[in-house]
Write a structure and sequence with these properties.
Layout (H helix, E strand, L loop, with lengths): L2 H16 L3 H14 L6 H14 L3 H13 L8 H12 L3 H11 L16 E8 L2 E9 L4 E4 L13 E4 L6 E4 L2 E13 L5 E8 L2 H13 L3 E4 L8 H4 L2 E3 L7 E8 L2 H13 L5 E8 L2
Parallel strand pairs: 1-6, 5-9
Antiparallel strand pairs: 1-2, 2-3, 3-4, 4-6, 5-6, 7-10, 7-11, 8-10
């Protein structure tokens, strides 16, 4: 292949990229890279080819081409080639590559080998399952994985599952004066064994409902009152929103994440702690 032909293929690849024809763009870049892997602009071509496969959710190709892109990028300077490589390697559970990618990006990791299980703070993730979208809170275990700490209302999603999220924030949530990013989900990494239940509770005071939520949390389970769920359009969801946990007195549905027998036991304990003001009924599994 002559360089003149390579230039034409690169132009075609960029045209395909602008049209979001990711497979065609990747194929064209790879044709050129097979002959010219180390030209001055080749780092950009490797990066775009890897990114196209990320968009296609072809994680093995995204990792393999991403390795080439990262090998031509400066380490420790936040180059996105390392971030995309870290995502692909994480999804493939290639922990050695993932650790090297995060370090190459400039992120400090917990010491050790294998799966990364650190404390990277709280964030939000926009779950996406068959077109249904829901923003939930997560505890970040690494730069791209987090454990869901809400009880999702989206069918098929569960408290405690681990998700992989993208690196570019798409919205913000402000809670107690602190701003947290909202990331888009890329894939479900690990399912949760905890079923989702729904129960109707009566709380004489807001403090009674707070006590129920705290009781489930103390036992490693989840509880989410219907009053805490807000519905936003897709456009508004990607904006900045003040986040508050609206806990009200009265009767309302509460979503629970716990084995049914444990949920029943804790509900009985909660209701029995006061003579009046606390009740529950209609416990059933919904997910």
């Amino acid at each position: 292949m002559h360089k003149s032909e390579a230039r034409k293929l690169i132009e075609q690849a960029r045209t395909a990229w602008e049209a979001e024809e990711w497979q065609r763009a990747a194929d064209l870049y790879e044709q050129v890279l097979a002959q010219f892997p180390d030209e001055r602009p080749s780092a950009e071509w490797w990066y775009d080819a890897a990114l196209a496969h990320k968009f296609l959710r072809n994680w093995e190709k995204a990792r393999d081409l991403g390795r080439e892109a990262a090998a031509r990028a400066p380490r420790g300077e936040g180059d996105p080639a390392f971030w995309n490589l870290g995502i692909a390697a994480t999804i493939l559970r290639d922990w050695a590559t993932a650790r090297d990618a995060w370090t190459g990006f400039g992120i400090g990791l917990p010491d050790g080998e294998g799966e990364i299980a650190g404390r990277f703070g709280a964030a939000c993730v926009r779950l996406d399952t068959d077109g249904e979208r829901e923003v939930v809170w997560i505890e970040r275990l690494c730069p791209t994985r987090g454990r869901v700490v809400n009880v999702p209302v989206t069918g098929g999603r569960r408290y405690g599952e681990i998700v992989v999220h993208d690196g570019e924030p798409k919205g913000e949530r402000v809670y107690n004066g602190t701003t947290f990013p909202v990331f888009d989900e890329l894939t479900l990494f690990e399912a949760s064994a905890l079923p989702t239940l729904e129960v109707t509770v009566g709380a004489g005071e807001a403090a009674d409902l707070e006590a129920l939520l705290a009781l489930f949390t103390e036992h490693g389970f989840g509880a989410e009152p219907a009053s805490a769920v807000r519905v936003l359009c897709a456009c508004c969801s990607e904006g900045t929103h003040q986040q508050e946990r609206d806990v009200r007195a009265g009767a309302q549905a509460v979503s629970l994440a716990a084995p049914e027998h444990e949920a029943r036991r804790l509900l009985e304990r909660w209701a029995g702690e006061t003579a009046i003001g606390r009740s529950w009924s209609g416990l059933e599994q919904v997910g």
